[in-house]
Amino acid sequence: MKNVVVTDPPRADPAIAGALGEHGVSTVHEAQGRTGYLGPQFRPAWSGARVGGTAVTVLCWPGDNLMIHVAVEQCRDGDILVVATNSPSSDGLFGELFATSLRQRGVRGVVLGCGVRDVAELRDLGFPAWSTAVSAQGTVKATAGAINVPITLGGQVIRPGDVIVADDDGVVRVARREAEGVLAAAARRTHKEALSREAFAAGELGLDRYQLRDRLAALGIEYVSYQKYAQAEHDEP
Amino acid sequence: MKNVVVTDPPRADPAIAGALGEHGVSTVHEAQGRTGYLGPQFRPAWSGARVGGTAVTVLCWPGDNLMIHVAVEQCRDGDILVVATNSPSSDGLFGELFATSLRQRGVRGVVLGCGVRDVAELRDLGFPAWSTAVSAQGTVKATAGAINVPITLGGQVIRPGDVIVADDDGVVRVARREAEGVLAAAARRTHKEALSREAFAAGELGLDRYQLRDRLAALGIEYVSYQKYAQAEHDEP
Amino acid sequence: MKNVVVTDPPRADPAIAGALGEHGVSTVHEAQGRTGYLGPQFRPAWSGARVGGTAVTVLCWPGDNLMIHVAVEQCRDGDILVVATNSPSSDGLFGELFATSLRQRGVRGVVLGCGVRDVAELRDLGFPAWSTAVSAQGTVKATAGAINVPITLGGQVIRPGDVIVADDDGVVRVARREAEGVLAAAARRTHKEALSREAFAAGELGLDRYQLRDRLAALGIEYVSYQKYAQAEHDEP
Amino acid sequence: MKNVVVTDPPRADPAIAGALGEHGVSTVHEAQGRTGYLGPQFRPAWSGARVGGTAVTVLCWPGDNLMIHVAVEQCRDGDILVVATNSPSSDGLFGELFATSLRQRGVRGVVLGCGVRDVAELRDLGFPAWSTAVSAQGTVKATAGAINVPITLGGQVIRPGDVIVADDDGVVRVARREAEGVLAAAARRTHKEALSREAFAAGELGLDRYQLRDRLAALGIEYVSYQKYAQAEHDEP
Amino acid sequence: MKNVVVTDPPRADPAIAGALGEHGVSTVHEAQGRTGYLGPQFRPAWSGARVGGTAVTVLCWPGDNLMIHVAVEQCRDGDILVVATNSPSSDGLFGELFATSLRQRGVRGVVLGCGVRDVAELRDLGFPAWSTAVSAQGTVKATAGAINVPITLGGQVIRPGDVIVADDDGVVRVARREAEGVLAAAARRTHKEALSREAFAAGELGLDRYQLRDRLAALGIEYVSYQKYAQAEHDEP
Amino acid sequence: MKNVVVTDPPRADPAIAGALGEHGVSTVHEAQGRTGYLGPQFRPAWSGARVGGTAVTVLCWPGDNLMIHVAVEQCRDGDILVVATNSPSSDGLFGELFATSLRQRGVRGVVLGCGVRDVAELRDLGFPAWSTAVSAQGTVKATAGAINVPITLGGQVIRPGDVIVADDDGVVRVARREAEGVLAAAARRTHKEALSREAFAAGELGLDRYQLRDRLAALGIEYVSYQKYAQAEHDEP
Predict the structure, then answer these.
(1) CA distance D87 to C115
(2) Chain A partners within 8 Å of D150 (Cβ)
(3) How many CB atoms lie under 10 A from the CB of residue C134?
C-alpha cells in the first residue's frame, strides 16, 4: 500500500452520474452487460435512498479512519465517498460527523467495505450510506493509507472518478469513460422494461414475450400432468 | 434433476391458506408441533407483509431464471411461488417484472432460496418477497430445471400445493393434506395466546400460568441471594 | 453451568441508565474508552428504538426458554433482559407474550444472543428487542440454566445490574460501578460533538479541527497530482 | 416432530452401497444426474476415508443426543448413522464412545448436520465422520426426537435405507430404490473417466474430446491476441 | 481498553495444566460441568497436537501485533499465549518468528481470536497454534493494548494464569483456582469412559448402560414397525 | 462480461515465479509492502504444497465450467490456472480430469474462487489446488465467459501473466512487472528473518531487536504488578 493522496482525478460528469442513479442499481448493472455489481453483502444503513455520484476512493487500515479525514478535503459536489480497508474489518469507520462534513461539500453518499455507525442520525439527516456492517466500534487515527487510488470492493475495481450507483438493491460501479454509453443503454432498458411491465400487467407471459418456448423443447423440458407424475414418482417414507 | 413441468397439482384450499396466513408464521409453526420453519436465513425484502398461499415450486440452475418464466404460466390465484436453486447462489433471480406478471395472475408472494432484486419497486408494488439474499446480480436463461416437483428450502421439503405462510418472522410450510387440521390448531392456539396475553398484561407470571415452579426444583435450580452468591463466587482479575 | 437464580442483585441507578440510553450506543462506547460494544451481529428487531436500562442476565440451554420464564419474576422497573445461550443457537427464545409480561413489569427491552420472534407484534407493541437472529423456531422448557450470573455476549462480560444501552447501532454495556462516570464522560462527548457538528456544517475540516496534518507528514503520506500519478502507475489489462 | 422410532426399514443392498462407496462422491453425484449432494458445509473429521452404507436416520433436538443412544440399537452391519437436528446447532452430539458402540455393530461411519468431537480419537480408531462443525460442546439427554423418519440435510431428503456415500469431497445420497441403477451408471462413468484420463494425460484437449469448439462460436466467444486486446482496453489508474 | 502490562500474575500449577492437557478438551469440558469451551470457530493450524498450559493474555488492536512483542517477555515455561483483538479481525498476527521466541521460553502453544500464518513452518517446528483464521495478512506495530488482563474469546472469560487445554476438538479454559478440582474430575471421567468403552466394545448399549429406556417412555417416544409407519405416512410427490 | 479469449499474454519469467514460490506466501506478501494477499477464505485442498507460477485467468458463470475447458488450451509450462466466477458460487468447477490435462501441459496448480472436487485424487496426484470451497456439485457447459482478462479474487486484481504464489497460508499475487523487484525484496526479507530466527532462538526479544520499548512509553503503556492491579480492579460477580 503506497501512502499517497492523489488530487483532482478526472470525474465522470456529475449530471450523468445523477441520471444513472435515477435508473437504479439493477437497471444499470444490466445495461452494462451484467457487470459492476458489488454483491449482496453491501446493504443500505437505512432503506429508500437511491443515488448516483462520482467516486472518491479511500484505502484505510482496519480499525483506523485517519484517511477518511484526509479524503473529506478531496471531495466535492457530486461525489460519493468509497472506502475499503486493507483487510477484513467490521469496525464503524464512518458516522454522523463525517456525514455532516461531507454534506456540506455536496457529497451524495458513502459506500464502505466495513462498518458504519450513527445509523439513526444518518437516517434523520437523509445522508445515504451502504456498508458491509453496522457497528459502533470506534477507531484510531494511527496508520497511513491512500486516497484516489484504485480499490476493490466486492470483487469490483473502483477507480477515482468512476460512477457509483446505489439503492436498496446494493451498489454498482460504472467505469468513468463508459458512463455516457451506459446511461444511454440504461435509458433504452428502462424504456423496454416499461413496455414489458405494461405487457405483463396485461397478462402476456415472459415465455411468449421473450420467445422461450422453443428453448424449452431444445433443453428437453417435458410437460407432464400431476396424475402421471404422481404415479411414476411415488414417494415412500 | 429431471427436467419436467408438472401441471395442475392439487392445491390446498386457498381460503384455508389465506386464513393460515392471518395467524402468522410463529403461531402456525407451533400449531403443527414446531415443524415446517425454513429458518432464520429467509428474510422479507420489505417488512410488514403477512401472507398465506399455495406453493408452486421451481427448481432453477444457479444464476439462471429460465424456469421462473416457465413457472409463471403454471401459477394461478392464491398461489405463492417458491424457488430453489440446484446449488448455493445469491444471484437476483426475481424482480419487479416477474412481480407484475404474478400479481396479474393473483399470486400472493414469492419465496426464494437465492437473491431478489428491485426491492424498492417490490415495496412500492406491495408484492411480498422472502429470500436468502438481496442481489442485483443478473442471470441467464440457459439451463433447464423443474416445476412442481418437491424441493427443499431451509431443511423443509415443499411439495406443490402445500401451504406457505410468511411474515416478518420468516417462512413456514404446511403440508397440503394437513392444512385444515393445522388451521384448527392455529385457531385454538391464537385463542389460548389471547387469554395468556391478557393474563400477562394483568401481571400473572408464566411460572404460574404454565405451572413451571415444580419443574425448577426437579431440575435442581436453586434460588440464592446476591449477597450469598457474591461471597461464594468472588471474581478476581 | 451452575443452576442458580441470584435474587436482587444491586443495579445501577435506573435514571442514570436511562440518561445513558439517550446518549446512544456509539457515544457511550466512545465515552468509556471504546469498550463494551457487543459487536455488529446484534441487530434491532425493528428500527428506531433507543433505550438504557439495568441488566437482568439469563443463561439458557439452546432451544430452551425455561429460564426466561424464571427471569421474568426477577425483573423490575428499569431493567433490560439479557439472554445468552450455552452454545450457539438461532432459535426464537423470545416473543410477544414475554414482551407483554415484561412491559407490565416496567422492563425497557430485551437483548438476545440467539433468535427473537413475533417481530411484527413487537414493533406494534413498541417493545424493543436486539438479537443475533430472527427466527420463529419454537423451543422446549426442559433444561436448567441460571439467572443473574455473569454472562458473555459478543465478547463482553455482562453482570447483573450493569447498564445496557441499545439503539440502531447495536448494544453496549457499561459496568454498574462505572455508570455515573461514563454518563459524565458521555455528556462531555455529546457536547463536544455538538460543537464539531456545527464546525463541520460550517465547512471546517477534521484535518484542521483534530490537527492531523502534521501526522500525515510524519506517516510519510504524500500528495501527488492525478497527472503525475497516472504517468507513474500506468495499468495494463 | 413426531416422537417415533421406526424399526427395521428396508435397506439398500449393503454390497451395492459399498460398491457405490468405492466410486466416490463426485462420481456417484454425476452418475445420478448431478443430484443428491449435501453441499460443501459437510466436511470429514479426518481426511482420507471413503465409505458407502445404508442410512439409519436420526432427528435430535439441538444440544441433545438422547436419540443417538436410541439409534445405536437400530443400527446393523453396513449402516451409516445420519443425524439431523431440529434447528441449527454446532454442538458436539457424537464422539468416540458412540463410535466404539457403532463399530461393534458393523456401522461404517456417521454423518451429522451438527458438531462432532473426539476428532483425534476417531482418526485413531479409523471411524469416519462427516459433520458441519467440530465442537467439544457437550449435550443433555432430555428431549425426544425420531429414528428412521425422512430427514433433510444440506437440502437433500434422506430416507432410512437410502445409500450414503462419503469421502473427502463430502456426502451424497442415493435413493434406496435407485441404488442398483446408479451403481451401473457410476461404473460406466468410472470407465469413461478412465479413458478420458488417459487421453488427457496424452495431451488431448477437453475442447476436442467433448466437441466444444462449435459451442464457443455459437456463444459468441472471440479469440483475440493480447496486443490487440491491450490496445483496446487500456486501463488507467 | 486500559493500556497496561500486568506482570507476574499467579499461574495454575504447570504440572496440573499439563495433566489436564493429557485428558483433552472434550473430557475437561465435561469434567467441569460442560463449561469453558471456546466454540467450533477455534481450529488447529495443524492437526494432532494436544497441550495444556497457563494463560498469558494479550489484547491487541486489529491488524496490529505490537502487544504480542510485549507479551513474549511476560511468558515463561509452561505458558500458553492467548490473544484477543479489540474487534473482529482475521489478520495473521502470529507466525514462525514469534513461535521461535516463545519456544525458547518454554511456551507450549498459542491461541488466537484472529489469524495465524506460517502454518507449514509451525507444523515443521511442532509449535501448536489454534486460531479463528489462517491468514498471511501482515500487521503494523502502532497501537497500544494490554497484557494479562481478563479477555473474552468465544464467549469465555480468560484470566491470566487460567489453564488452557487445546487439541483437535478446539480449546477449553479452566479457571486457575478450579484447576486441581477439575483435574480430579477429569481423571474420574477418563476412568469411567474407559469402562464404558470396554462395555460398548463388548456390545452393551448406551440405552442400558445409562438407563435411558424409562425416559423414552416418559417422553412419549413410540416404537413402530416400518410397515405400519409406511401405511400411515404415505408420501406423495 | 465480454466473451473473449485473449491469447499469449506476456508472462512473468517462470524462473522468477518459481523462486518467489520458494519464499512462500507470507514472505512475498510482506516483501511487496503487505499487498496482494487473497485473504483467509482461500484454503488448500490438501496441505503441504508450495508453488509459484504465472497466471492464466478465467472468468466463468457460476455452476458452469465451459471456460475452464477453453483455458486449458491457453496454458503452458509454468502457469497457474486462476478461476473466478461472475457471482458467488461454491460449485465444484474443477477436478481430477482437469488436473491431469493441466499437469500434462506443465501447469503448477490451480486457484479457484469457487469449489474444487476430487480432493483425494488431487492429493494422490500431487496437483496443488486452492479454493474457497470443497464441493462435489457438478456443473454445466452452457454459458460464455472470458480468458486472460483481469479478474478479481479476494479483493485482488489478477492480470494474465502475474505471478501467483500459494502455500498453506493461502494465495498472494505479484504484478508481472514487479516480479523481479519483489523477488529481490523477498530474498532480503528471508535473509533478515533467518538472522532474527537465530536471535530469537538464542533468547533475544522482539522488543529489543525491533527497538519497540520507547514506543511503548510513547503510547502510554504502563507496567503494573499483579498485586497492584488486582487491588484496583476487583471484579464482582
Answers:
(1) 11
(2) 237
(3) 22
> Mean per-residue pLDDT for F193-198?
98
pLDDT at residue B235 is higher than 80: no
Mean pLDDT, rounded, of chain A: 96
What Rg value do the Cα atoms of chain F yield, rounded? 22
Q: Would you call E234 an interface residue with chain A, using a CB distance cutoff of 8 Å?
A: yes
* Cβ neighbours around A110 below 10 Å, total: 32
Cell numbers of E30, please?
Answer: 465435561
pLDDT grade for F2, boundaries at 50, 70 and 90: confident
CB neighbourhood size of F211 (10 A) = 9
Please state the rounded mean pLDDT for residues E33-58: 97
CB-based contact D101 E205, cutoff 8 Å: yes
Please state the pTM of the whole predicted model.
0.96
Distances (CA, A) of C171 to C25, C122, C132, C182: 6, 18, 11, 15
Pairwise CB contact (< 8 Å): C140 & D143: yes
pLDDT for residue D39? 97
**Is the pLDDT confidence value at F153 over 90?**
yes
Residue pLDDT, tens place only, E160-170: 999 999 999 99
Which CA distances in Å does B90 have to A181, B61, B85, B86, F156?
28, 12, 9, 12, 21
Please give the helix or strand (H or E) that residue A27 lies within, else none.
helix A25-31
Burial zone of A195 (CB within 10 Å; 0-12 exposed, 13-18 middle, 19+ buried): exposed
CA C119 to chain B, closest CA, distance in angstroms equals 6
In this prediction, residue D11 has a pLDDT band, given cuts at 50, 70 and 90, of: very high
**C31 — pLDDT class (breaks 50, 70, 90):** very high
3-state secondary structure F154-194: CCEEECCCCEEEEECCEEEEECHHHHHHHHHHHHHHHHHHH
Residues of D in contact with F7 (CB under 8 A): 223-226
- The answer to whether residue A155 neighbours chain F at the CB level (below 8 Å) is yes
**Closest residue, chain D, to F3 (C-alpha):** D221
Chain A residues inside the 8 Å CB shell of B4:
221-224, 229
Cβ-based contacts of A91 with chain E (< 8 Å)? 62, 87
Per-residue burial over A211-220, b = 16 or more CB atoms within 10 Å of its CB, e = otherwise? ebeebbeebe
Tell whether A125 is within 8 A of chain C (Cβ). no
Query: Model confidence over E214-230: pLDDT tens digits?
Result: 999 999 999 999 999 98
Residue of A nearest to D148 (CA): A237
Q: How far is CA B186 from CA B16, B30, B200, D3, F43, in A?
A: 11, 8, 20, 21, 48
Spatial CA neighbour of C36 closest among E132, A95, E2, B226: E2
From A79's Cα to the closest Cα of chain E, the distance in A is 29
Q: How far is D190 from chain E (nearest CA, A)?
A: 32
CA distance A177 to A159: 11
Instruction: Establish if B69 touches chain A: CB-CB under 8 angstroms.
Output: yes
User: For an interface test with E, which of D76, D77, D101 has the most E Cβ atoms less than 10 Å from its Cβ?
Assistant: D101
Query: From residue A152, how far is each of A10, A84, F154 by CA, in Å?
Result: 19, 7, 9
Chain A residues in contact with E86 (beta carbon < 8 A): 63, 137
CB contacts, 8 Å: A155 with chain F: 84, 152-153, 155
For A152, which DSSP code?
A: E
ipTM for this model = 0.95
Helix axes E96-104, F179-201, angle to 10 degrees: 10
| Interface check C84 vs D, CB under 8 A | no
- How many residues are there in chain B? 237
Nearest in space to D53 (alpha carbons), one of D114, D129, D124: D129
Q: Is there a contact between C24 and A120 if contact means CB atoms under 8 Å apart?
A: yes
C-alpha closest to that of F55 among E117, C237, D220, E137: C237
Q: A39 and chain B: CB distance < 8 Å anywhere?
A: yes
Gap between the Cα atoms of B108 and B106, Å rounded: 6
